[in-house]
Amino acid sequence: MTTIALAPGVTLIALGGAVEGKADPNKRWGLLIDVNKCGADCTACVTACSQENGWKDTGHPQTDAQWIRKVDLKDMATGREVSLPVMCQHCSTPPCVDVCPTGASFKRADGIVLVDKHACIGCRYCMMACPYKARSFVHEPLEDQKTDVPRGKGTVESCTLCVHRIDVGGSPACVEACNTNGHGAMLFGDLNDPNSDISQTLREYPSAALRGDLHLNPGVRYQNLS
Prior knowledge:
By secondary structure, this protein is an alpha+beta fold. It is built from 7 helices and 11 strands. It has a single domain, classed as Alpha-Beta Plaits (2-Layer Sandwich).
């Protein structure tokens, strides 16, 4: 395993081997988001992700990290408005992986899509290929990094589903924050387990994928989107 010291106590680790080795090929992790429970004025999921993973919104959307963002949609025919979080959709056939020239973008055996910071050359092909605008490029030097969330200037990054928490039996910070705030709009679990809460809910209620016309089979699904 290759490491590079970024600051005292902070190390950039090659994700390809270290993180992939913990993936269970029998699982496929995913999210189900009920937009009826997602308040337009609530950004708890965004704040939690920022605090957990060490990125900051400085008010410059063109250059800031956007691991997760709130999007407001309006149906022009009915006037119905909804608000929903958008992040990496962890596609079964991710376009970001297809276009990456170095293999830096990769999908784990359990469906989580990640970026190996050592292999990333900053070409940003993956950002252009992502139909969800879910990836960001790190323009500035990084400070106050989290020891278990490797980041690096000149590389691309996106939502990891808080893989460092999942690999020790936890759940994504956004889901935890949503539940703590009493909304319960986000459900995390194993899509391959027919007995998991997320699989049972998906069987019982209709859901939709963002840009379903692309047939990417994302691991993130939305309820009550239309």
